[in-house]
Amino acid sequence: MKKVKLLLIFCLFMMIVFNGNAQSDIKQKPIIQTSYTADPAPLVYKDTVFLYTSHDEDDATGFKMLNWLLYSSTDMVNWTDHGIVASLKDFNWVKPDNGAWAVQAIERNGKFYLYCPMHGQGIGVSVADTPYGPFKDPLGKRLIETDHLWNDIDPNPFIDDDGQAYLYWGNPDLYYVKLNPDMISYSGEVVKEPVKPKNYQEGPWVYKHEGRYYLSYASTCCPEGIGYAMSNSPTGPWEYKGMVVEASDKTRGNHPGIIDYKGKSYCFGHSYDILKRQTATFYERRSVDMDEIIYNEDGTIKTLPYWSVDGPEAVGKINPFKRVEAETMAWSEGLKSEKKSQNEVFITKIDNNDFIEVKEADFNKGARKFEVTAASIKGGKIEIRLDGQNGQIIGICEIGNTGDVNNWKKFQCKVKKVKGLHSIFFVFKGDGASLFNLDWWTFKS
Ligand code: FUB
User: Residue 270 forms beta bridges with which residues?
Assistant: First the structure.
């Protein structure tokens, strides 16, 4: 009873805090808009950033989390949606009704290991031959056996330069084990870090940057920011160094994912900024954010006050003359994605005036034609605009009725010759809701 009362008081407090933030002043643009995403776990593999996230359901009030999602980028501004990559149902020893909390993947010798916490039921691992899955549970039981399953969340794998792999995890304490080279078993005891760094809450993210070890984590509560500590060893002791992202009353929870990519460094986390655009009521419906971070000479990190409005600069371009998936975008409004097969995602729930923005499209010497694959029982139009939702229209593509929302057909239109680097805005027009579904598009010269 006491617990219930405390929970009610907490929820009331959160509603007051949350309601205090006007929705109109939200300018930040979380990187994923087609689903609510949290707990970002970026993995750099070859030339691509693979971003695994947990997934808050659209109707979540508290945590309602059934599966994990995958996104990828090669330019850090446009993200391609790969849909659900793993789910509670993949673990036959797990009650699959809730608890798909913060996941992280790592690659070793061409195999991909996804460490999955099922809250209250322990940490499992699943393995795939590609970063996209399919992931399979090789153990049929949890990876880590402890007497504190409730606290066994937020698994964080790390492989040191000498090949020794570690798995860190835990709330409110920080634990680790040494993983064996097979990555699905471990040697030695579970170690509880004797001295946690200042304000450690959960979400450990251990990594190495220019020879130094870092432990970043959800810090302070609540609101949570992202704190970090440094060490000369992967097992500590950890010396608190400050905040990567300041705790701010603009958000509540947070969860770090830090990488180096194409010569820059990035910190991922999450906020409630998309939810706040829609309602002042607090729900656990979070959205992943990301910004570039800068290291000082001594290895410390310059603190970010909050997620920036514009996000990082692009480190790559989109080639619009290749097949571009409709689910590749820098920003969108009103849309959802759906998976039609293991490797095929499409964009759906397209209503009048919804739009997609694709940044850094390099038209080079010019395009003359636009082609898109769509399916519809209604139809509508795509206005192709440049550099703004209300920017210059270079073409209008009519999408006809294909007789079935799964019957995909190609539609084409001429476009005004356009050269150089632009943001493309696909603005959808038609009669009301669910006009058509989109699979992919391309321009032709
Ligand atoms: O998303 C569920 C839990 O919330 C995560 O496991 C924690 O890190 C916190 O973000």
Answer: 288
